Amino acid sequence: MTTSASASGSVSTSAGAPGGAPASGKGVGPLLRGWREQRRVSQLELALRAGSSARHISFVETGRSRPSEEMVLRLAEHLDVPVRDRNALLLAAGYAPRYPETPLDDPALDALREGVERLIQGYEPYPALVVDATYHVVAANRGIAMLLDGLPERLLAPPLNAMRLTLHPEGLAPRIRNLREWRGHLLAQMERDIALRRSDALRALYEEVAAYPPPSSEHSSLLPDEEPAEPVPYFALPMQIEHDGRLLSFISSISTFNTPMDVTVAELAIETLLPADPATVKYLHSLMS
User: First and final CA of the chain: distance in angstroms?
Assistant: First the structure.
């Protein structure tokens, strides 16, 4: 999560933008080769995808040929280069950036902010939040505020970070009953994001939260005086978290914007927590009433 998670779900912009791969003084060729190798795509395969030739791709990567602006963007698309880094490729090739980076509080994004706020508020009483590329919370609904209830104030001070808050030993971690599995899922998710985005800020966050003490093997899956229940056939790994003496189970779903034309918008993700069992549904609706 990135800014303070207010119960009203209002968008905050206290978090800075994460750093992407900087433009290199060596030109666009080495950058493109780096992305191609990271994606494990051969020159021939990339050429076929982009409607070019392996010879031309080789010339571009070695600096013997300067690609057109259209070719840079076409190669970036087929290599699944993030929008922020497509700007870096264009700059390295001698072209102007194509994608703006509009501050989230800019009037030009009024419709986006209002739409996202309506979306996560309409999801109540179930938890939902919006994060940026380094998991800073830019909006959250009352369901999220409910899960954060009782945490230390210093952990709730903006900018609020979803990964840090979830895995910190004084955050939600002690409340998560299947912390070992959930921690492994979150760290693997961050590793995939690092491979995709090449973000120094994201790597630093990963190293911080990965260094938090792992859960002890004695971590019980039952609440005090709780009888073992019939196992629930979950269709995905749930986050099982204790709240007010109850065990709640959620399945996480993450949505992004299709074909974003702005760096800020491209790096936003909406995470919704779907109740994974009838008891969780019943309890959350009782809170709403």
Answer: 27
- Which secondary-structure segment (H or E) carries 194? helix 179-197
Query: Residue 150: CA atoms inside 13 Å, Cβ hemisphere, count?
Result: 8
CATH code for the structural domain at 28-92:
1.10.260.40
Candidates 128, 81, 82, 137; CA nearest to 104 is: 137
Alpha helix locations (H) across 4-152?
A: 28-38, 43-50, 54-62, 69-78, 83-92, 110-122, 142-148
Domain ranges of the chain: 28-92, 107-219+234-288
DSSP letters of 143-167?
HHHHHHTT--HHHHSSSPBHHHHHH
Q: What is the pLDDT along the chain (289 residues), one digit of tens a residue?
A: 333 333 334 444 333 333 344 334 479 999 999 999 999 999 999 999 999 999 999 999 999 999 999 999 999 999 999 999 999 999 999 999 999 999 999 999 999 999 999 999 999 999 999 999 999 999 999 999 999 999 999 999 999 999 999 999 999 999 999 999 999 999 999 999 998 888 899 999 999 999 999 877 544 444 444 554 555 667 789 999 999 999 999 999 999 999 899 999 999 999 999 999 999 999 999 987 7
Question: CATH fold of 107-219+234-288, please?
Answer: Beta-Lactamase (3.30.450)
What string of H, E and C letters represents the secondary structure of 7-24?
CCCCCCCCCCCCCCCCCC
